[in-house]
Amino acid sequence: MSSIAVKQYLDVESRNVAFLGLGVMGYPMAGHLARAGHRVTVYNRTQAKAQQWVDEFGGSRAATPREAAQKAQIVLCCVGNDDDLRAVTSGPDGALQAMAPASLFVDHTTASAKVARELHETAGQRGIDFIDAPVSGGQGGAQNGILTIMCGGTQQAFGQAEPVLRSYAQAVTLLGGPGSGQLCKMVNQICVAGLVQGLAEAIAFGQSAGLDMNEAVKVISKGAAQSWQLENRGASMIEGRFDFGFAVDWMRKDLKLVLDEAGRNGARLPVTALVDQFYGDVQQMGGNRWDTSSLIARLRKS
User: Fold this and answer.
1) Residue 198 has pLDDT above 50, yes or no
2) What is the pTM of this model?
3) How large is the angle between the packed helices 113-124 and 180-208, nearest 10 degrees?
4) How are beta strands 74-77 and 169-176 bridged, if at all?
5) What DSSP string runs through the chain?
6) Is residue 10 a part of any domain in this protein?
7) Do both 40 and 163 map to the same domain?
8) Which residue of the set 49, 185, 253, 301 is catalytic?
9) Hey, which of 21, 105, 139, 148 would disulfide with 78, CB 3.0 to 4.6 Å?
10) Is 256 in the active site?
11) End residue of a domain, out of 129, 156, 176
C-alpha cells in the first residue's frame, strides 16, 4: 500500500513530465504527479526503485535522464548534491541534451546558488527555462503533498511550473531570479539549526533540573517558544529517539552550502558555524543518519 496520503488535486491540464531521482522525497513527489493526472516518466540511478514506482503508480521508467526527458514538457529533479545535479542535467546522458526548446526544468535538490545560476544559463542557451525550487517539509511533507517550495527563476517559467508543483505543495513562492530559491532554503536551514540547538539545550536543562519535560513542552508550546520543531520533535528528543527524519549528514551538507555562501557574500554566521561543529560531534558519536534533533544527544549526562 502506498504511503502517500490522500490529497485533493487542482484541476490542472495534464502534462508530459519526467521526474529524476526517487529518494525519500522524490518517490512520493512523483507519485503525487501521477495521481494528479500527469503522464510521468521516472528515472532513478537504481532501476529497481524506478520499476517499483511504476508498479505502484503506472507511467514509465527510463534508463537515463536523457531518455526520460525526451518527450517531457516539464522535467523535475530531486537528487543529492551539486555533482549529482550536474550529472543528470548537463552530463552526456543529462536531461538538457534531450529537452525541447520552451520546455522547463525544475530542480528540487538542495544545492548551491552557484550551480542554480550555472544551470539556468546552460539551459537558457538551449531555449529551456530553469527554476531552482528547493523544498521544506521533510519526508512527511512529501508524502502528504504539503511541501513548501522556494523558487528562483523568471516569472514566466514560474507561471508554467506553479500549477504542477501544487500537486505536492501547500505553498509555492517565487523569491526572485536564478539562485533565489536556493538562497531562501539556506535561510530556512540557518533558522532550523539555531532552533534545534536552542530546543536541545532547553530540554537538557529541564531534565537536569528535574522537570517533567513532557508537561513543560506542552506548556511552552502555547506561548512565545512555540515552533514546528518544538511540536514535532520535542517529545522524541525527550525520549532520545532519533531513528527517523532529516539525517545529520544531510544537514551538514546543507550547512556547508550556507557557510560557503556566507564566505562569498560576507554574512556573519557565528551560531550557525558553531551548530555545524556540534553536528560534527554527533557524527563522531555514530549519529550520521540520526534526525537533526539528535543535537541533544551530545548534551546528555553519561
Assistant:
1) yes
2) 0.94
3) 160
4) unpaired
5) ---PPP-PPP-----EEEEE--STTHHHHHHHHHHTT-EEEEE-SSHHHHHHHHHHH-SEE-SSHHHHHTT-SEEEE--SSHHHHHHHHTSTT-GGGTPPTT-EEEE-S---HHHHHHHHHHHHTTT-EEEE--EESHHHHHHHT-EEEEEES-HHHHHHHHHHHTTSEEEEEEEESTTHHHHHHHHHHHHHHHHHHHHHHHHHHHHHTT--HHHHHHHHTTTTT--HHHHHHHHHHHHT--SSSSBHHHHHHHHHHHHHHHHHH----HHHHHHHHHHHHHHHTT-TTSBGGGGGGGGS--
6) no
7) yes
8) 185
9) 21
10) no
11) 176
In a domain, 135, yes or no: yes
Q: Do both 77 and 141 map to the same domain? A: yes
**Amino acid 8: pLDDT:** 85
Q: How many CB atoms lie within 10 A of CB 123?
A: 25
Structural domain includes residue 3: no
- Same-domain check for residues 63 and 82: yes
Whether 1 shows a pLDDT value over 60: the answer reads: no
State the total domains in the chain.
2
Rounded Cα distance between 135 and 145, Å, is 11
Q: Please write the tens of the pLDDT for every residue from 146-162.
A: 999 999 999 999 999 99
Cell numbers found for residue 144: 502528504
Kindly tell me the burial class for residue 168, based on how many C-beta atoms sit within 10 Å of its own C-beta (0-12, 13-18, 19 or more). buried
Query: In this structure, are residues 168 and 136 in contact, taking their beta carbons and an 8 Å threshold?
Result: no
